[in-house]
Design goal:
By secondary structure, the chain is α+β, with helices and mostly antiparallel strands. It is built from nine helices and 20 strands. The longest helix is centred in the first third of the chain and has 14 residues.
Length: 362
């Protein structure tokens, strides 16, 4: 979920750092927090891996990993042996005698993972563990986490992962719960949630346009009523029309009274006329023209350029559909952007490949 939605607060409720004012927290069938019951942090058998490893600088790597075992009453010899085994499991056995301040960011995060696993927690909490790593260290730690959570020769571990990165989701997760304004707005298997996003935040995470409206045929969507420019729709509210252009959550916009239609491919079953539905399609499926391109494209829309932003080797163009406030994002080459002289306020024609538009009920 977006910043401030309650993800970290939820994790603190699970660990016992926060005591919920209502509801229950259950782990593996046991109630940790609830009416008349509160299990303290040290008795929950949990481990947390955060953005920063938070190693104790005055201790060696081995001593950092053994710290939790010693604190629980284990004798020094067995704790030392367990710590060394945990370090070898994360490919850090040769770092045991170093001090924490002598480690790189990736090494420190591996050591922090060893420290978390050595106590054999029943639940591992991962609070954006790759967020503070550089681009070279993050993939290695992500790969290590994947091996730790789903080892080839052992039982899978249960983890609760907080992330903003779709790569983390694809590599590590089985199930997604989207948190918005302190509530679970949507949840389901990873493949289903990413293939058929139902909120602007998920659409932005995946990088697709998301438009909602009313089905007017088995494979056709007509945009509906306005929910206001720049607002993310409340999934529990009466459905209106929204769009996300894969730029940021704030690009969700509402439609006016226009009659723009999108033809696509129904994801599960044909749409039922009159029901609220969604259309998702990548910016790469949208081409931009100054005049009617000719031919007989199924999705031929008029619009006005709202923003033009460089995105690496491509340029992201966002256009508002004529007669509406619905934003649609298109990725074009830099050469095409220059040739077409794309700029805010320019009237354009958009062609959306119908075969790349996925339609599904809201």
């Amino acid at each position: 979920g977006p910043n401030g939605s309650g993800k970290s607060s939820l994790l603190r409720c699970v660990t016992g750092q926060l005591r919920p004012s209502g509801g229950t927290v259950q782990i593996d069938g046991g109630t940790m927090s609830g009416p008349g019951r509160f299990v303290p942090v040290h008795r929950r058998r949990l481990a947390v891996l955060e953005q920063r490893p938070l190693l104790l600088p005055h201790l060696s790597v081995r001593e950092n990993v053994a710290f939790g075992l010693l604190a629980s009453g284990m004798r020094r010899g067995p704790a030392r042996a367990r710590a060394e085994a945990a370090l070898y499991a994360v490919s850090c056995g040769d770092l045991a005698d170093r001090r924490a301040w002598q480690l790189s960011g990736g090494q420190a995060q591996r050591v922090a993972l060893a420290r978390a696993l050595v106590t054999e927690p029943r639940l591992l909490l991962l609070d954006e563990p790759m967020a503070a790593l550089d681009v070279s260290a993050a993939p290695a730690v992500r790969s290590l986490l994947r091996d730790v959570l789903a080892p080839a020769d052992g039982p899978r571990r249960t983890a609760l992962l907080v992330t903003h990165d779709v790569i983390d989701v694809l590599a590590l997760a089985d199930h997604i719960a989207l948190v918005q304004d302190g509530r679970i707005a949507a949840q389901g298997p990873v493949e289903e949630m990413l293939a058929r996003p139902r909120t602007p935040f998920l659409a932005d995470l995946v990088g697709v346009n998301l438009v909602s409206g009313t089905a007017c045929g088995p494979d056709t969507l007509q945009v509906g009523a306005s929910i206001g420019i720049g607002e993310s729709p409340d999934v529990s509210a009466s459905p209106g029309i929204s769009a996300s252009t894969g730029i940021s959550t704030s690009t969700a916009v509402g439609a006016g009274t226009g009659a723009a239609r999108l033809v696509g491919v129904a994801a599960d079953r044909p749409l039922v006329a009159g029901r609220h539905a969604l259309a998702a399609f990548p910016p790469a499926a949208v081409s931009v023209h100054l005049v009617d391109p000719g031919g007989s494209p199924r999705n031929h829309l008029a619009g006005v350029v709202a923003t033009v932003e460089p995105r690496g080797t491509l340029v992201r163009v966002t256009a508002r559909l004529a007669g509406t406030d619905v934003g649609v994002g298109a990725d074009v080459t830099a050469a095409a952007a220059v040739e077409l002289d794309l700029r805010p306020g320019l009237a354009v024609r958009l062609v959306v490949k119908a075969t790349q538009v996925t339609l599904y009920e809201r």
